[in-house]
Specification:
heterodimer; A: 298 residues; alpha+beta; Alpha-Beta Plaits; 2 domains; two-stranded antiparallel sheet; 8 helices; 15% strand; B: 346 residues; mainly alpha; Formate dehydrogenase/DMSO reductase fold; 11 helices; 4 strands; 3% strand; globular
Chain lengths: 298, 346
């Protein structure tokens, strides 16, 4: 076994910085870091080609994730997981396409929603908070990555993620997820999925710039009559402090399998610890009372 | 409110000759919608209800979050045995202080045995058990599993020394110091696992976080008292009987409060596999408590009630474990409360 590196680090986690709009890379210990990088996935121009899924698998050497017919429209990867780091969702709806003629049948409403889902690289990442080994870490780009040589497969990150992103690879035992192509970023390249996207539905860049671009695109769509269009994960004051990878959706988040109001579970952890302490004291009190009161019972 | 209205669209028609164009199970183009009658009505601006039944939308009925990969019996066993150990350490220390040698030996030995077994469950459940020591690379207050690993690495040696000293009669001074350390850390060992499961996105676990530690210490006290009743003679078992009252009372009351407060996410605690275990736990704890109080003149009756209390604690942990998985696997427990939260902010 490799020697165990014992480093006890203090993190400013429980001083209220689990909430709100913060700079994750600085919080993670990178004072002079590069700008926070992320994805803006504009689903209104996604054509469902799955080039992102393929490019991701090829670049990151991800094993096969099931060759099955799901009956879920054109979706055959079903959702994000240990071996699916980009997942393209397909939703068939009897709804009119805004300001366009679908040309399906006269008077018949039909639209096809497609969206490429990915790890959100949250500002306040529950997976990172609960990881007991330090395998999950914050990079200088503000992204969240698993160090596979450290992960011991405890599985805590998996139910902690409010989006259902990270999962355990059964035959391997460890947890895996999107790294936002940390290796490519480190040498100035864009992630494989964004590079391969033929319609620029997946846009990569500094988060500030992406947010500006997304706001402009949303205004454009609203003007064109697509009033359902909404940004998801854009708001730095949402339950996870905003996503590093955010989306433009054409319907409610849950239609795409996304949680409508995700909250980082560790937001409530200070209160959880207080309740645990109160319960521990109650147990001591109960035991003391049991020894004091036993003569009345026997 | 488009997400609700779209459910009304359909490819089928009602004609004089009956339904036409109905495709079984394929009539929900945007995924499966399951109703929850009564609540979450959507209303038009003028206040008239537009959708009588509660509906929610999901992506083909797929879960939103990924379900815990933790498996049974490792993890529910770890929750049960950790609780038993922590509370038994208190009972053992009290028995030593009040001169009840058999209860002392049983509780201290039981605490160490249960503590070691709980650690075995935890290590066995790891995807890479050989990397268990990576748990001690750092201390992270944001990770209840990290806190618990450090806690156990202090608690287990102390409890082992306390048990060895009391069973062999050697090194009584060191034994007493170890007993004190074990009794100090025991309550933390019995309660931190509540934060461990609540600090997830699993609806039934997370939403119940204020009451869960009290359910856990109640269940732990019931288990430790059960061990005392099972293995200690009648003259020694008075404190165990009293502790059974405390444990069962705390567990049942806090469980009830939790279920009432959290609303829809409490459903899995009364349904399916989780619900069956929880019900069994409640019945066994009441039977065990009744036996502990009524059977105090009977060695056999006491032992039987002790076994019932141990079984009740285990059943409760298995129930909470499975109910959590059920709540993770059904998107309604994720989507509906979040949707209600959004509506209430408007």
């Amino acid at each position: 076994m490799a020697p165990v590196d014992i480093t006890i680090r203090r993190r400013p986690d429980l001083d209220g910085s689990l909430l709100g709009d913060t700079d994750p890379a600085t919080q993670g210990g990178y004072p002079g870091h590069p700008p926070r990088m992320g994805f803006f996935t504009d689903t209104s121009v996604c054509i469902g080609c799955k080039a992102c899924e393929v490019a991701c698998k090829e670049w990151n050497a991800i094993p096969e994730d099931g060759l099955v017919f799901t009956g879920m429209s054109m979706d055959n990867s079903q959702g994000l997981g240990a071996s699916t780091w980009r997942h393209v969702a397909f939703i068939e709806q009897r709804k009119p396409l805004a300001a366009q003629d679908p040309g399906v049948q006269p008077g018949g409403d039909f639209r096809w929603l497609m969206a490429s889902d990915v790890c959100k690289h949250c500002t306040h990442a529950a997976c990172l908070d609960v990881c007991p080994t330090g395998s999950l870490f914050r990079t200088e780009f503000g992204t969240v990555v698993v160090q596979e040589d450290i992960c011991n497969g405890c599985g805590y990150c998996i139910p902690a993620c409010p989006y259902g992103v990270i999962d355990q690879r059964k035959e391997d035992g460890r947890a895996w997820k999107c790294t936002l192509c940390y290796d490519r970023l480190s040498v100035g390249q864009e992630p494989a999925c964004a590079k391969s996207c033929p319609t620029n539905s997946i846009q990569f860049g500094p988060l500030d710039e992406l947010r500006e671009r997304a706001d402009a695109r949303l205004a454009q769509l609203h003007e064109a009559g697509t009033t359902d269009a909404q940004l998801y994960g854009r708001d730095p004051n949402d339950g996870v402090g905003g996503d590093g990878a955010f989306f433009l959706l054409l319907d409610a988040p849950e239609v795409y399998g996304l949680p409508p109001d995700p909250v980082v579970t560790t937001r409530d952890l200070p209160s959880m610890w207080k309740h645990v302490a109160a319960a521990a004291v109650t147990l001591v009190g109960g035991a003391l009372a049991a020894f004091a009161a036993e003569r009345w019972i026997s | 409110m488009s997400e609700f209205q779209q459910l009304e669209h359909s490819s089928s028609d009602v004609t004089k000759d009956g339904l036409r164009g109905v495709r079984p199970d394929r009539d929900a183009p945007t995924g499966v919608a399951t109703g929850r009658p009564g609540r979450l009505r959507t209303r038009q601006r003028d206040g008239a209800p537009t959708v009588p039944d509660a509906k929610f939308t999901s992506y083909y009925g797929m879960p939103v979050i990924n379900s815990p990969v933790w498996s049974s019996p490792d993890i529910p066993g770890y929750l049960f045995l950790g609780g038993l150990a922590g509370a038994a350490s208190l009972l053992g220390a009290g028995a030593q202080a009040t001169g009840r040698p058999v209860l002392e030996r049983v509780s201290k030995g039981g605490a160490f045995g249960a503590g070691v077994l709980s650690l075995v469950g935890l290590v066995h459940d790891l995807g890479r058990p050989s990397r268990f020591l990576h748990m001690l690379r750092m201390f992270k207050i944001t990770s209840p599993m990290s806190v618990g690993s450090w806690l156990l690495s202090g608690y287990l040696p102390a409890t082992g020394i306390a048990a060895a000293s009391s069973l062999t009669g050697r090194a009584p001074k060191i034994g007493t110091m170890a007993t004190a350390a074990s009794a100090l850390l025991g309550p933390a060992v019995a309660s931190y696992t509540a934060a461990l499961i609540s600090d997830t996105a699993v609806p039934a676990w997370h939403d119940g976080y204020p009451e869960m530690p009290f359910v856990f210490v109640g269940s732990a006290a019931a288990a430790a008292s059960g061990l005392g009743l099972l293995a200690a003679p009648l003259v020694d078992s008075g404190p165990a009987r009293a502790m059974a009252m405390f444990g069962v009372g705390t567990e049942l009351v806090s469980f009830q409060l939790m279920e009432r407060r959290i609303g829809i996410t409490a459903e899995p605690y009364s349904r399916g596999r989780g619900g069956a275990y929880v019900r069994a736990g409640k019945i066994l704890s009441l039977l065990g408590l009744a036996g502990a109080l009524l059977g105090r003149r009977s060695r056999g009756g006491s032992a039987l009630s002790g076994a019932a209390l141990l079984a009740s604690s285990a059943a409760t942990r298995w129930g909470i474990f499975h109910a959590g998985k059920q709540s993770a696997n059904d998107p309604k427990y994720t989507v509906i409360p979040q949707r209600e939260r959004i509506e209430s902010r408007r």
